[in-house]
Amino acid sequence: MLTLPAGLLAEVTAGEILIGNPDVMANGLQIDSRLVEPGNIFVAFAGEKVDGHRYLEEAISAGARVLLVTEGSEQLGPAIEAARLRGTTVVRVADALGAVQTLARHHRARLFCPVIGVTGSSGKTTTKDFIYSVISQRAKVVATQGNRNNELGVPLTLFEAGADTDAVVLEMAMRGEGQISTLASIARPTAGLITNIGTSHIEILGSQDAIASAKAELVASIGSEGTVFLNGDDAYADLIASGTTASVIRYGLGAANQVRAENVVVDDESRPTFDLVMADIRERVYLGLPGRHNVYNALAAAAVGGYMGIPAPDIVTGLQGATITEMRMQAFMTASGIHVINDAYNANPSSMRAAIETLSAMSAAVRRIAVLGDMAELGSLTELAHFRIGEAIEELDIDLLITVGPRALRIADGARAAGMEGSAVFAFDDIGAATAKVLECASPGDAVLVKASRVIGLERVVDAIVSPE
Q1: What is the pTM of this model?
Q2: What fold characterizes domain 3-96?
Q3: What is 29-87 written as a DSSP string?
Q4: Percentage of the chain surpassing pLDDT 70?
Q5: First to last CA, the chain
Q6: CATH class of the domain comprising 330-466
């Protein structure tokens, strides 16, 4: 955990102590006053919708020992007097985000455990979850929680690590050129993993080659003494590997990969089983998570587990018992007997197809219903990518298609063009209308996949299936 005196905090961040004792020690950092615990640093971010400076008194009452602000004493008003009465030190900085990132660099320099960065076009959150589960079988791990994978989230995760931490696993999001480099400059990863190179964010970066280059910024940050993990079956693996002097470990289904899966089969609920082969290890692994594509995510975690010295039986236990972040291929049965796959957190063409393939493989289902929404940030590929998803719906023998959103209309078009009966295809602009159709159509024994980019908010469909009015 981040621990330092207020005076050092001010020195590191080039800040000014407005009031208080520079020798007071602070432990941990929060950006939400509701989460402040005694001894914490509270950072007052001035956002577009919420200004943290309005919650300084609440943070002080909760026991904040240091306040990090960007306003002066005159602007802070009663909070200054409250801080004086409670012995809270107030430090003013020019830029709150820059100060937090600088603090994270300072804190990272005091950590001596491996730091593993994880990025990729799809599967990075699930891969991170698998890695956490594997390493935590034998070690204390700090890993990214929720959506803390950006310029603020990475520092917040680093602050949770301390002298007793054995490994840090950081998911790193990318929305533009240079973002991964920025995150890597903060985290200084000793190992890096790229799950794959797809077409998500192509609207921002312009081409798949540019996406590969942006993701490869993680690999470029790893020194010769570090280790890089790559999906050996990905078309960009060789190009990315050529850009590093670090050791490269490849995983995948191909025979040339150091860590690979053999004899992959899926059961009637689309859950894969495979032989994990690495070094002199051959272990049978059963994943409780549906989707053949999750074999790759599990292999990535197994490769990292081997790198961390986790024994093979514990790697298997970690993979089989992993808890996956909500809305990422989250499979469950409702009280009414409908099998739901909630993958509503995000979507791109490759992950959308993988999810549909998972639904298609659920042979135990009475009917397989796909509820699909818009995929964002595809730029010039938007029309074609959605249309091809629709073609895949018919190709993979899905029984019913319900689309939500203007872009997803092309999914419906593609399905009809590929030969899907019009009576099995429904397209809606409104989530409410789409939800009503799902509730009308879904029956006990059916399997329902819900997937879209996060901006669509398609988890509301899942909520309605679980708790129909």
Answers
A1: 0.89
A2: 3.40.1390
A3: EESSGGG--TT-EEE--B-SS-BGGGGHHHHHHTT-SEEEESS-HHHHTHHHHHHHHHT
A4: 98
A5: 45
A6: alpha beta
